[in-house]
Input
Amino acid sequence: MNEHFTGSFTQQEPIPDTAIDAAVAVLKSGRLHRYNTGPDEAGEVALLEQEFAAEMDAKYCLAVASGGYAMTTALRAIGVKPGDRVLTNAFTLAPVPGAIAAVGAVPVFVGVTEDLVIDLDDLAAKADQADVLLLSHMRGHICDMDRLLALCGATDIKIIEDCAHTMGAKWRGRWSGRDGIIGCYSTQTYKHLNSGEGGFLVTDDDAVMARAVVLSGSYMLYGRHLAAPGAEAFEAVKYDTPNISGRMDHLRAAILRPQLQRLASQCAAWNTRYREVEKGLTECPGLRLIARPEAETYVGSSIQFLLLDWDAAGVQDVLARCAARGVELKWFGGAEPMGFTSRYDSWRYAPAEPLPESDRILAGLIDMRLPLTFSLDDCALIARIIRSEVGAVYQKQPVQ
Ligand SMILES: *Cc1c(COP(=O)(O)O)cnc(C)c1O
Output
């Protein structure tokens, strides 16, 4: 009898009781807007910003309406203008090129390697085409940051990091999001903290932070921030920076603060699940796991593997067989994007040169979410199912 998995790949854990209590208190107060605070009251949003900045060893933090909003604000805050070109990953999630498009700029897509990180050779080749890089640590894979920083330093490229999948991850012991001028994070339901929608940006730069706060819609109430520079920084920008409202509210902040306290243990819980699936897929013929570099401390909230150079029918067969046994896999190589878009050729509003090496990798790239509602037994079962179905189909693959 074939084993079946019956769990849901989209079921998150409940919001912790302490967070629910804090949310109810905000609701009872009626004061939901971040600047609607009582006398001597900091408010949930300002406290959350202070706590997140401390957690990330950052001087400043701004909580906003979404991860996408954090990225558009970051681009504006460092001065990206309509028509400017911005380097970014050819493989990432749609809000990344979308943020570039939102400010009227034009993405220059950089390829992906078999390790699922930005192709630094391709980046070097395109370094003269733009002076900003919106670097996405897509699916939690961190590229060789030492080489990336050397390259961007030598070519005067400013870096904004998209850490939607690396909140809590590190490179050589340094938090992901702290190597660029600005780090951006999402607190949308499928990320590492869950407020439904939401996001953060962090920076150490006074002028950048002042512009970001005013951009987010501070109505000259920037003095109420606890993780922002002093009034001088705002004096310099407040008349020249438009208000493009995208604030976070107290309700979401109240839900996030208790979750932030347990981020490290959540990340550890993801990693035990990740390693269980990884272990179950080790040395599976035809399937290639993604090597994780020593310098990277990852958060395994999803797992990827490659069916490299398989024909499309074979990949589809694996997906269908796994789905029939309750295992939902995403295929980044599908001809038509379904439920999400992650590939440069799906974003036809932006010009794109063909990237044949990346196409080869994406054609074999499979992805699976690992919600924390899965037990370790669930993870082992899922791996057994994938392993047996990959094995069954691989035997029929044309000889490579
Ligand atoms: C989710 C995500 C974002 C931000 O998403 P929002 O839905 O706007 O919060 C950014 N980059 C990547 C890679 C993502 O997966």
User: Anything to note?
Assistant: The mean pLDDT is 96. The chain has two domains: 17-261, 263-394.
